[in-house]
Amino acid sequence: MEPRKRVSAMLALTVFGALLLVPPLVLVFNQPISHFGVPQIVIYLFLVWLGLIIGTAWLSRTLAPDTSGKPDGLEDE
């Protein structure tokens, strides 16, 4: 995958993760249902959190390290 697509995938993962954690969607899972004694909302939040960690780890491993030594936003003059 080319670097531009990887960076776009990281942005998409961030936006998707934020959307999964907004209160209107989270409250859909706030039901009096429990699985193995754990409330459904807790399972949802931990699965989203775990998915974001795994997605970030996978995408960050595919990104090439920055070897320019320059801070972001600085161009060659």
Dominant shape: elongated
Span between termini: 30 Å
Low-confidence stretches: none
Fraction in beta strands: 5-15%
Neighbour order of strands in the largest sheet = 1-2
SS-derived structural category: mainly alpha
Look at the structure and give the mean pLDDT: 84
Helical residue percent band:
55-70%
Q: Major sheet, described briefly?
A: 2 strands, antiparallel
Number of helices: 3
Care to count the β-strands? 2
Radius of gyration: 18 Å
- Quaternary structure classification: single chain
Order of helices and strands: HHEEH
Task: Give a written overview of the molecule.
The protein has a two-stranded antiparallel sheet with strand order 1-2. The protein is mainly α and 77 residues long. It has helices at 3-20, 23-26, 40-62; strands at 34-35, 38-39. The chain is built from three helices and two strands. Strand 1 (34-35) and strand 2 (38-39) form a beta hairpin.
Summarize this, please?
With about 80 residues, the chain is mainly alpha-helical.
Descriptive terms for the model:
77 residues, mainly alpha, two-stranded antiparallel sheet, 3 helices, elongated
List the helices and strands and how they pair.
Elements: H1 3-20, H2 23-26, E1 34-35, E2 38-39, H3 40-62
Antiparallel strand pairs: 1-2
Helix pairs in contact: 1-3
